[in-house]
C-alpha cells in the first residue's frame, strides 16, 4: 500500500511514518512503477505502527524501540531477542513501580491539603 493509505488506515501521519522508516522501525520497498518514486508498505506495517504508537505513548524512546525491532527481526539470534525484550519488560516494570509510588505520594499530599 502507498503511504497515504497506510497513514489513513493506521491513524499515523505520513511524517511519522517517514520518521519511523528513517529510523529503521518500519520497512517499505520500491513501488512497481518505473515512472515515480512511490514506496510500497507491506500490510504488516499496520501492526508495527500500532505497537510503535502504543510504545511511544507509554514513554518509550526511539532508541528503545530500535533495540526491540533489531532484536526481533528474523536475522537475529532468538536468545538475544529474548534477552533484549526481557530487559525492556523489567525496565518498564521498574518504571511502573516508580510511577505508582509517585502517584501514591501525590494522593497522600492531596489528602493533607
SSE class:
mainly alpha
User: Compute the gyration radius: what is it?
Assistant: 19 Å
Quick one: how many beta strands? 2
Strand content: under 5%
Mean pLDDT: 88
Structural overview:
The chain has 113 residues and is mainly α. Helices cover 67% and strands 4% of the residues. It contains 5 helices and 2 strands. Strands 1-2 form a two-stranded antiparallel sheet. The longest helix has 35 residues, at 78-112. The radius of gyration is 19 Å and the shape is elongated. The model has no long low-confidence stretch (mean pLDDT 88).
Q: What's the arrangement of secondary structure elements?
A:
Blueprint (H helix, E strand, L loop, with lengths): L2 H8 L3 H9 L6 E2 L8 E2 L4 H13 L4 H11 L5 H35 L1
Identify the notable features of this structure and list them briefly.
two-stranded antiparallel ribbon, mainly alpha, 113 residues, 2 strands
Summary, kept brief:
The protein is 67% helix and 4% strand. With 113 residues, the protein is mainly alpha-helical. The protein has a two-stranded antiparallel sheet with strand order 1-2.
Amino acid at each position: 500500500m502507498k503511504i497515504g493509505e497506510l497513514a489513513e488506515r493506521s491513524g499515523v501521519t505520513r511524517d511519522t511514518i517517514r520518521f519511523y522508516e528513517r529510523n529503521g522501525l518500519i520497512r517499505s520497498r520500491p513501488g512497481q512503477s518505473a515512472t515515480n518514486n512511490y514506496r510500497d508498505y507491506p500490510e504488516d506495517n499496520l501492526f508495527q505502527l500500532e505497537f510503535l504508537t502504543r510504545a511511544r505513548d507509554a514513554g518509550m524512546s526511539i532508541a528503545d524501540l530500535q533495540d526491540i525491532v533489531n532484536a526481533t527481526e528474523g536475522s537475529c539470534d532468538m536468545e538475544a531477542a529474548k534477552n533484549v525484550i526481557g530487559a525492556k519488560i523489567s525496565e518498564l516494570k521498574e518504571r511502573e513501580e516508580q510511577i505508582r509510588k509517585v502517584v501514591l505520594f501525590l494522593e497522600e499530599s492531596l489528602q493533607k491539603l
